[in-house]
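Duplicate of #3305? Posting structure anyway:
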């Protein structure tokens, strides 16, 4: 018989804090898993299918903000609570901009955490039932003569109608969400693929070559997907 317990994933590298939260949430009747770093957190999120994520910012491998963005590219409704020692206004604003639902600074009051978890789970269930999106969704997107349909994973471009892989769609969403903002290769790998900072790969460059082939009139002189020396890449275009 399948469990009806709500599932909560804690992504926290401080074992003492993680185990304390896990114990108290378990006593509240939740099914709880813990991941000690960013890479493990992303993997556990995909395997465990949680109803809520409690997320630290300062994590080994992949930072919490990158995890947050990565999850939001695929799931706009999953309730996410940031629990971090970085509680200054700039970090709170950054978290909200990336789509976090709640933010609690360390040190925290346990009773307050439990109440926030309960509230987020109730709100998440209501949103899911009523089809309320947490963030504006990219169902379709137009730039220049290009049209992308993220529901069907297709695009209309200079090559005609083409099919996009799920990973291509995900990385395109990442560029669109950060339109006009430089993205480093490391950041693209962390958010788009879940790779740690130590990973070195030509994967990003290969995807950019592909996007230019699809969407640029002259792939050798790109106007949408631009290279920034020693930084990474920038996607931008004039307002439609």
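Output from current build:
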């Amino acid at each position: 018989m399948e469990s009806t317990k709500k599932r909560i994933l804690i992504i926290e590298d401080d074992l003492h804090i993680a185990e304390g939260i896990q114990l108290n949430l378990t006593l509240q009747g939740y099914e709880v898993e813990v991941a000690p770093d960013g890479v493990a957190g992303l993997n556990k999120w995909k395997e465990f299918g949680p109803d809520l994520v409690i997320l630290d910012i300062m994590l080994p491998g992949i930072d919490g903000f990158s995890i947050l963005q990565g999850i939001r590219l695929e799931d706009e409704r999953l309730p996410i609570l940031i629990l971090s020692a970085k509680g200054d206004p700039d970090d709170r604003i950054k978290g909200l901009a990336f789509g976090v639902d709640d933010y609690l600074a360390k040190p925290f009051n346990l009773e307050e955490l439990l109440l926030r978890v309960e509230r987020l789970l109730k709100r998440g269930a209501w949103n899911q039932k009523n089809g309320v999106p947490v963030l504006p969704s990219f169902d379709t997107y137009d730039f220049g003569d290009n049209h992308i349909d993220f529901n069907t994973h297709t695009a209309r471009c200079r090559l005609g109608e083409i099919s996009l892989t799920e990973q291509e769609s995900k990385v395109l969403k990442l560029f669109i969400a950060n339109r006009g903002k430089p993205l480093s290769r490391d950041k693209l790998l962390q958010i788009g693929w879940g790779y740690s900072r130590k990973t070195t790969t030509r994967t990003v460059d290969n995807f950019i070559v592909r996007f230019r082939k699809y969407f640029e009139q002259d792939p050798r002189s790109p106007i949408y997907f631009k290279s920034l020396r020693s930084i990474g890449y920038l996607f931008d275009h004039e307002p439609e």
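Confirmed duplicate; merging threads. Residues 110-130 form the longest helix (21 residues). Residues 140-235 form a domain with the Arc Repressor Mutant, subunit A fold (CATH 1.10.10.10).
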